From TrEMBL:
The lineage of its organism: Eukaryota, Fungi, Dikarya, Ascomycota, Saccharomycotina. It comes from Wickerhamomyces ciferrii (strain ATCC 14091 / BCRC 22168 / CBS 111 / JCM 3599 / NBRC 0793 / NRRL Y-1031 F-60-10) (Yeast). SUPFAM superfamilies: NAD(P)-binding Rossmann-fold domains. It is an enzyme of class 5 (isomerase). This is 3-beta-hydroxy-Delta(5)-steroid dehydrogenase. The keyword Isomerase applies.
Amino acid sequence: MVSKIAVIGANGKVATQLVQKLANLKTEFETIAFIRDSSQGSKFDQLGIKYSTKIDIIESNLEKIANTLKGFDAVVFSAGAGGKGLDKTFAVDLDGAVKVSEAVKLAKVKRFLLVSALKSQDREFWWNTPLRSYFIAKKYADEIISRDEDLNWTILQPGHLKDENDTGKIEDPLRVNSIANKISKENHDISIPRSDVAQAIIESLRNESTIKKFIPLIRGEIDIKEAIGKI
Ligand SMILES: NC(=O)c1ccc[n+]([C@@H]2O[C@H](COP(=O)([O-])OP(=O)(O)OC[C@H]3O[C@@H](n4cnc5c(N)ncnc54)[C@H](OP(=O)(O)O)[C@@H]3O)[C@@H](O)[C@H]2O)c1
C-alpha cells in the first residue's frame, strides 16, 4: 500500500534530497512537499511531486496545520530557521516542531519524524559553543515531543550536515553518542552527507521499530538499511 507522506520544510537541503529520493519510489510513497513560496515549486514539478504552500510554520495556527495534515500516514519535519536569529529559531525549531507534532496528533496522522541535531540532549556538548541558543531550541523540542505518549515519534539527530555525494552508509546509531563524546580527544568526524540523512529518513519510514526512538546519525561504514533495520 502506498504511504502518503507530508514533508514540511521541503525546500530545505535535506528535504530536497529526501523528496528527490521519494520521487523515485512512487509505488511505495505518495509525497506532498510543503514549501513557503510557490516560486520554489518548479523543482517539485520536475520531479512529479505535488507541492503545497498551505503551511507556514510561524504564520499557520494549530487548527490550520492539523486540517491540512488530515489523511497523511506520516509527517516529516525538516524545517529550521537556519541561523536567522533567535526569534525565528524559537518559532521554527522549537515551537514550530512542537506545534506540528500537536497538529499530527489532532489530525490522527500515524507517524511524526523530526530532523533534529546530534546530542541535543547533552548540554555539555554544546553549552560553550556559538550554537547554544539553537541547541536549546532543539533540546526542548526533542524533549517535549519524545515525552508525548500519544505520538508515534521518531527523532533523527544528524551531526554536521555536508553537501556531499551520498555514501549509502552510516555509523551504528547505537554507538554514535559515545563516539561523539570522544571527538575532541580523538578527532572523529561527526559529519554526514545530507543525502545519507535523507536515506535514513526513508528507512525509518519503512521501519516501525524506529517509532519512539532517537536516531543519532554520523557517517560510518554500515549500510543505512541494515543500520536502521536493527534499531
Ligand atoms: N547545518 C547543520 O550542520 C545541521 C546539523 C544537524 C541538524 N541540522 C538541522 O537539520 C534540519 C535540516 O537542515 P537543512 O540544512 O536541510 O536546513 P535548510 O536547508 O536551512 O532548510 C530549512 C527549511 O526550513 C524552511 N523554513 C524556515 N522557516 C519556515 C517557516 N516559517 N515555515 C515553513 N518552512 C520554513 C526553509 O524554507 P525556505 O527555503 O523557504 O527558506 C527551508 O526550506 C534543520 O532543522 C537543521 O537545524 C542542521
